[in-house]
């Protein structure tokens, strides 16, 4: 039996239940009570549930709303935002800078495509091969950690020749350290090269990020290693509400495509104390805000996004900034709490009735032209995602 890559959680559930390979996926026209997958899912869930340690759910189930929700649920007041492959429009996907920029915008999670190297280390890479995004070739699982790290992870458009060229494939430890610094978590999209999911969960636990993170997997070794781990379930369109409610007893996060969700399916997930955060990016870059708004209108708690700045602004959750001077000729716009920079912003220097605008780049920094601006005031006017800030251009000793 095969399932599309986006259905890994479903596939793992089926495998856990030892379903025979002859079962036909897809049940168009079948009645829910007659669908053989329901009992198979229940068997798999029964095997996983004793391994989990989640807070007691105090929601009172309303099964009637799983068929007709009426007024949709109201999603989490604090919008849950996961940055897909980091802030991948600001820096090369799955690189450390991409994750740093995402956390600068205060996202709750960064989505990491986790691969395992030949010598058992975990790195961030979406594809099974290194061909598309690096200057290397071959399967990531056949490379050692050092061989993977020697590659240039910015060797593709539009990043080739940019300020981010060269870049390294990020290690999971590096990303976990940034998440810890930022007070966020990791959405671990576990790829086929990973053979030691228990070891992976232990590593996340070592950084104290189990409660903040989620695992896109149904491998029981994750729960054996870390019973408090949260698993994400990739919603399909066939599951009846009562099954979604049962799935939510084990899988505390629901993801996948937005067009697979309705107010009824969201209500069923919420009644099991799970959260719903579908993709906002499947309809294209220019539709992400509209997709986010639609997700919230049907009760979703948040979204997974390629453009965290846009979603932070749309959610009304702008973060505080500050302006800092680095060295003798750089002014940087950074998150006031975690110090991570904002590229692509405009800061203004003003002195003696003259002013100049500078664009921030790498690490949120801009080079000050010459020494005549020393002592100038420096300001950022703010935008929907980042609050305004002001400072003084006094060189540091660094």
Automatic annotation (TrEMBL):
Q: Which residues form the signal peptide?
A: 1-32
Decide whether keyword Cell division is in the record.
no
What are the alphabetically sorted keywords of the record? Answer: Signal
Q: Tell me the domain of life.
A: Bacteria
Where in this chain does the record put each GP-PDE domain?
79-315
Record flagged with keyword Ribonucleoprotein = no
Q: What InterPro entries does the record point to?
A: GP_PDE_dom, PLC-like_Pdiesterase_TIM-brl
- Protein name, please? Glycerophosphodiester phosphodiesterase
């Amino acid at each position: 039996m095969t399932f599309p890559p986006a259905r890994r959680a479903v596939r793992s559930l089926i495998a856990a239940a030892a379903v025979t390979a002859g079962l036909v996926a897809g049940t168009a026209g079948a009645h829910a009570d007659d669908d053989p997958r329901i009992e198979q899912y229940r068997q798999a869930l029964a095997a996983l549930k004793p391994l989990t340690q989640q807070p007691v759910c105090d929601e009172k189930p309303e099964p009637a709303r799983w068929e007709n929700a009426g007024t949709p649920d109201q999603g989490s007041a604090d919008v849950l935002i996961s940055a897909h492959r980091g802030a991948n429009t600001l820096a090369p996907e799955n690189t450390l800078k991409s994750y740093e920029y995402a956390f600068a915008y205060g996202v709750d999670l960064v989505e990491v495509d986790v691969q395992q190297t030949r010598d058992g280390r975990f790195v961030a890479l979406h594809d099974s091969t290194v061909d598309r995004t690096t200057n290397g070739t071959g399967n990531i699982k056949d490379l050692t950690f050092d061989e993977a790290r020697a590659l240039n992870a910015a060797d593709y458009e539009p990043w080739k020749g940019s300020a981010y060229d060269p870049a390294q494939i990020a290690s999971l430890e590096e990303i976990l350290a940034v998440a810890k610094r930022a007070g966020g978590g990791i959405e671990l999209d576990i790829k086929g090269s990973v053979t030691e999911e228990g070891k992976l969960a232990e590593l996340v636990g070592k950084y104290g990020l189990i409660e903040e993170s989620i695992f896109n997997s149904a491998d029981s070794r994750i729960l054996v290693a870390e019973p408090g781990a949260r698993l994400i379930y990739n919603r399909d369109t066939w599951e009846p509400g009562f099954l979604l409610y049962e799935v939510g007893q084990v899988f505390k996060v629901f993801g996948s495509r937005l067009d697979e969700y309705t107010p009824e399916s969201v209500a069923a997930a919420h009644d099991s104390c799970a959260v719903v955060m579908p993709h906002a990016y499947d309809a294209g870059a220019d539709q992400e805000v509209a997709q986010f708004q639609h997700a919230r209108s049907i009760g979703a708690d948040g979204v997974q996004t390629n453009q965290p700045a846009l979603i932070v602004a749309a959610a009304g959750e702008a973060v505080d900034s500050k302006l800092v001077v680095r060295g003798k000729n750089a002014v940087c716009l950074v998150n006031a709490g975690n110090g991570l920079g904002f590229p692509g912003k405009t800061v203004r220097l003003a002195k003696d009735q003259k002013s100049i605008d500078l664009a921030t780049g790498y690490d949120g920094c801009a080079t000050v032209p010459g020494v005549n601006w020393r002592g100038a005031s420096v300001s950022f006017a703010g935008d929907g995602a980042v609050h305004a800030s002001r400072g003084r251009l006094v060189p540091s000793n660094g």
